[in-house]
Design goal:
By secondary structure, this protein is α+β, with helices and mostly antiparallel strands. Helix content is 22%, strand content 39%.
Length: 132
């Protein structure tokens, strides 16, 4: 069902510092910040030859990333994202197998449908599925 690893998302307490680290220290190809109000985050994508890193920074008071950073002030890995061919079929299969889906299918930062899966069902890891 799952395809390629699409990205690893890292919550950061200071977006400018994180961008500088990836761009200047690691020499990575860093995109421009984009606000995603529906998800309560500002994201910056770092393009690697085989995947992407998604830097997440809180956008607004109700951002889920703000809560994550309260528990993890230095930041850290927030979720991993896998590609799927059909998000509705993947969701339905997961639900039928007992997995918990968090919320409805939404449009993600890449402009494609996404859904999140409960970390307790995936070895403590928040999983995002993105339709390709």
């Amino acid at each position: 069902m799952i395809g390629n690893l699409n990205h690893v998302a890292i919550a950061v307490p200071d977006l400018d510092v994180a961008v500088a680290t990836y761009r200047d220290t690691l020499g990575a190809n860093v995109g421009a910040p984009q606000d995603e109000p529906d998800h309560g985050v500002t994201v910056v994508f770092i393009t690697l030859p085989n995947t992407k890193i998604e830097l997440l920074y809180p956008l607004g008071e109700n951002s889920p990333i703000a809560g994550f950073l309260e528990k993890n002030p230095s930041g850290g890995i927030h979720h991993i994202c896998y590609e799927v061919a059909d998000i509705e079929a993947a969701r339905d299969k997961l639900v039928a197998s007992g997995a918990r889906v968090l919320g409805d299918i939404k449009i993600g930062a890449h402009g494609k449908p996404v859904v999140f899966l409960h970390p307790k069902d995936f070895n403590g890891t928040l999983v995002e599925l993105e339709q390709i």
